[in-house]
C-alpha cells in the first residue's frame, strides 16, 4: 500500500481539485435542491419542511405536463435530427478524397458549436425575419411565397428550434462519428472489396457496424440532454408561441426566478432529473449499451 502511494501519490494529489470541484459545484447543489424541494422556502425567516406538497403542486399543475409534452416534441426532434444529420455528413465527408476540403468542412461545421445561444439565436431571428430576413426574401423571389412568420407560429417555431439546435451541434457530433470512422481497420475494407462489395455495401456492412459503439455513445449523450433544453427556447420564444414551446426547464425558471416559488421549482427540477434517469435507462436497455 505504501509503495502504491509513493508511486501514484502525485496523481492522487492532482485528483483532489477535480473531486473538490464536483463536490462543490455538482453534488452540493444537487443535495441542496433536493432538500429545498421538501421545504416551504422563503428568502428570510423559517423554512419549514412540508413533505411532498411541492411535488403535489407540480404534479397537479397542467402547465407542467404541457411543458413536458413540448419538451418531448422539441427535444425528441432534436435528438433524432441531431443524430442522423451528423452521421450522414460524417459518412459523406469520409468519401471525400481531398483532405483540405474535408478539414475545411469540419472546421466550418464546428464553428456554430463554439458560439453562444445568444449569438446563434440573434443571427437566426434576423435571418428568419418576415420583413427583412434572408430566408423570406429567397422564398418570395424564387417561389413567390408570402412572408412566413417562422417564430410567431407555433408549428414553425418548434421546427425552427429543432433545426437550429441540430445545426449548432452538428459539427461536434460529426467529429465524434469521424473519429470512429477513421479508427476502422483498413483491412476490413480491403477484404470487402476483394469480395466484390460496392461502396454503398462497404458503408452498410463495414462502416456502420464498426462505429456502432460511437453511435451508442452519441445517442446516449444526446438523450441525457433531451429534457434539459432551455437556451434556444429562452432566446427564440415569444408570447404568441409560448404555450407550445415552453419546456420543462423554462417552467422551472419561471417558478423559481420569476414567481420565486423556489420549493416548487426545486421539486420540478428533481422530477426532471428522475425522468432523465428513466429515459437514459430505457435508451441503454434498447441500444444494449452495456454490450459495447
Q: How would you sum up this structure, described in words?
A:
The structure is a single chain. 76% of the residues lie in helices and 0% in strands. The chain is an all-alpha fold and 292 residues long. Helix 3 (62-94) packs antiparallel against helix 10 and helix 10 (212-224) packs antiparallel against helix 14 (262-287). It starts with a helix and ends in a 5-residue tail after the last helix. The mean pLDDT is 90.
Please render the helix and strand layout as text.
Elements: H1 2-36, H2 53-59, H3 62-94, H4 99-114, H5 117-127, H6 134-143, H7 154-182, H8 186-194, H9 199-210, H10 212-224, H11 231-236, H12 242-245, H13 248-258, H14 262-287
* SSE topology string: HHHHHHHHHHHHHH
- Outline the low-pLDDT stretches: none
Distance between the termini: 33 Å
Largest sheet: none
Radius of gyration: 24 Å
Strand content: under 5%
Helix content: over 70%
Which geometry do the CA atoms define?
globular
The number of strands is 0
How many separate helices?
Answer: 14
